[in-house]
Design goal:
heterodimer; A: 337 residues; mainly alpha; MetI-like fold; 2 domains; 13 helices; globular; B: 258 residues; alpha/beta; ten-stranded mixed beta sheet; binds adenosine-5'-triphosphate; binds magnesium ion
Amino acid sequence: MSASTPKQGRPDAAAEDVRTLEATPSCSATRVVERDAEPAGPAGNPRNEGASGHKSGGRAAADVAARIIMWGAFVLAVIPLVWILWSVVSNGLELVGSPRWWSDDAAGTSARRPGGGALHAIVGTLEMAAVTALIAVPIGVLTAVYLVEYGRGRLARLVSFMVDILTGVPSIVAGLFIYAFWVTTLGGQRIPFAATLSLVLLMIPVVVRSTEEMLKLVPNELREASFALGVPKWKTIVQVVLPTAFSGIVTGILLGLARVMGETAPLIILAPYTKYLQGDLFANLMATLPTMINDNRTEVTQAAIDRAWAASLTLILIILAFNLVGRLIARTSKVKA
Amino acid sequence: MAKRIDVQDLDIYYGKFKAVEGVSMRIEPRSVTAFIGPSGCGKSTVLRTLNRMHEVIPGASVDGQVLLDDKDLYAKDMDPVAVRRTIGMVFQRPNPFPTMSIFDNVAAGLRLNGVKNRKVLSETVERSLKGANLWNEVKDRLDKPGAGLSGGQQQRLCIARAIAVSPEVLLMDEPCSALDPISTLAIEDLIHEIKEKYTIVIVTHNMQQAARVSDRTAFFNLAATGKPGKLIEIDDTQKMFNRPSEKATEDYISGRFG
Ligand SMILES: Nc1ncnc2c1ncn2[C@@H]1O[C@H](COP(=O)(O)OP(=O)(O)OP(=O)(O)O)[C@@H](O)[C@H]1O
Ligand SMILES: [Mg+2]
């Protein structure tokens, strides 16, 4: 983060000073730690002695050890990532590359019949994501506006606490909650819209938290400048604060959407899979990419497994696209972190 | 235009903390009044009570009266938003709206208050930018972002923005403290010009600036940290700088303070 600060905006000189001041003690703190570590390392390691002029051997050894550990951790973290990407791409690319994949649903395919398309699942996933956003974004953004601009005292703390709890709710619990509410209590059907509601539950806290962060980054001076012009508070929020934070808020929303699109548990509970293109959220069945993966995964034939891989790749590509757009919009940001 | 302000026995609080105590003074129309005093004595605090910006801070409150031509700004039926429309403010750090162009920044006050007529807007923008001595520098790039100007230009942009809503009083909190000497002079000249039309109150740490721009000077001081700040005296600037009535004022102005 500190590396990117100079590029962004121009922090006032005072803040710059504080930063340098802060940097100094933390440097000396590291030095103290290093000195503490010295006796632990082999006192006079001849190999490292000449490597860096004024470092003592012990410190150089500690430096090398720390470097090895960090690189090791980095490689350990990257290996599974690359592995996953590689398997998904190599196993899924063939089907994803065929035009039918993007233009047909899976009608006519079976465990033995290879090929088929994923249009039905792509449409389902995007449609659910859109409706989820439609419901979750206003609620989330308005909650964040309340917390940052109006919230004082007990109610605000309560709301904030609830958002924290919601953040920690596992997706299957959200799915079961909506099931209990929609099916058991209201006596409704298992329909895609109910699944969307559970995605809304999962998305709201993400939107609230990211919007909150962006609103907090809007300098108070802008609000005061607006108030001083005789602009009422709500108008200040709508016309000054939200536009200033706009790109950041949109980024947060897209990242939140990318997350909910991969959720599977609530869909399995509430929106059973179908092979056919079906875009009605209030009908009984609806395909989505996660449930398509799940459905094909349970078959043992190569044809089905290929489709599962290809659906995985498709989901990754769509989420990647959302993330990329989010990042591009973040570049245009008016408030600098 | 240009109204008189009467402050009567004003106590100002941040929560339970009494930041300023017992301020009474008269601020004359069509004149410049400078607030001077050591850091933390409450100059900004007093300034912000004059247009009810003080109460924007959570927990902040005021006890006493502020009269604008005999109308009590803190009366029950007084709308703080209307007060701020009448009494404009320029802040220590230039704070143009980053999402808006130069034009939109100046037009912001009118637009946000519902004026839509393009002709009215562009006339006001031109008049205000001319009034703030910025017109010639920006007239060819009105659609460029306001945040792309230099610090001094940004501050004049903020002054233009403040005078675009035709206030009666203009409050300035250390408007030159982030600026170079040349921009400072430009703003001081500007203050000289616009005091014909407005009542101006300016907070400054710069004695020369106070002496240069103001007609009257108010000196604030505080007995000790944690104690409330007080108005020591207010008088004609000439008199304050040559033979002030209070010893503390003389000490502060001549640099023998603390
Ligand atoms: N937002 C706030 N909340 C609580 N106390 C505050 C706040 N702003 C100012 N104060 C306190 O009020 C007192 C007066 O502050 P004020 O900012 O008015 O001083 P000042 O004279 O403008 O100082 P400076 O010359 O440094 O700007 C100080 O003791 C300060 O700590
Ligand atoms: Mg101040």
